[in-house]
Amino acid sequence: MEQVEHILVVDDDREIRELVGNYLTKNGMRVSLAADGRQMRAFLEANTVDLIVLDIMMPGDDGLRLCRELRVSKHKAIPIVLLTARSDETDRIIGLEMGADDYLTKPFSARELLARINAVLRRTRMLPPNLQITESSRLIGFGDWRLDTSARHLLDDTGTVVSLSGAEYRLLRVFLDHPQRVLSREQLLNLTQGREADIFDRSIDLLVSRLRQRLRDDAREAACIKTVRNEGYVFTLPLQLLEPGS
To answer: Which of 22, 179, 199, 245 has the fewest CB neighbours in a 10 Å radius?
Structure first.
């Protein structure tokens, strides 16, 4: 039996909530509605969902704050599509940096929102099966490095913080969640860009190169991220789950 995706729509505008809810329901999805962060939290405590559609501009806890909250909670793995009424890029960039998977600017068509939701769900299902090791510990050790997944800090062997961009952090998280697995460029593009990616786009190679530089990993003799010819990349170092302060 085909799985029915459960979508939670969080928006303080009743008309938009109901319009989106009705359209997604007519297209075979199960939909629940919440008017604010309080209702969202209460619902998630008692239910599981496959994706959250989250409005940025809400009174009280706005969507950006709720997005950040979700990404450090037990619900951190739930994909998020942000809705924003602002035409400038600031909120969208901040939202993606906080871990949102995609965004849509109001006014939008319900058909486009459905397409974005389906695209994000496809990307989520593309993840190879794994135990999601980085969900088990706040601090992950590999080689001479430690990644604090709560503060999103990369620390070298002296404890010095090495700055990572949002895209670099997301790429490193994907590798740490799936060590010793070859990940194709298409998978890495889709999982780090937050949008459907052109499979011929070589920007993932540039992103891998930047991450290797942060990790001081020589591409010619890579110790962390190895290139697998005609297939993609694989993270090869063993991981350790560390206690804070170690």
So the answer is: 245
pTM over 0.70: no
Spell out the alpha helix ranges (H) of the chain. Answer: 14-26, 37-46, 63-71, 90-97, 110-125, 166-177, 185-193, 203-214
Residue type present at position 36: D
Residues 35-64 as b/e (b if ≥16 CB within 10 A, e otherwise) read bbbeebbebbeeeebbbbbbbbbbeeebbb
Q: Which residues contact 50 (CB under 8 A, 6 or more apart)?
A: 5, 6, 7, 78, 79, 121
Q: At 34, which amino acid appears?
A: A
Token representation of residue 46? 């008692």
Q: What is the total residue count of the chain?
A: 246
Cα separation, 94 vs 100, in Å, equals 9
Can you give the pLDDT of all 246 residues of the chain as single tens digits? 457 899 999 999 999 999 999 999 999 999 999 999 999 999 999 999 999 999 998 888 888 889 888 877 888 778 889 998 766 566 666 776 677 778 888 888 999 999 989 988 887 776 555 444 444 457 889 999 999 887 778 999 998 988 887 778 888 988 988 888 888 887 787 777 654 444 445 678 888 998 999 999 887 788 899 999 888 899 999 988 876 655
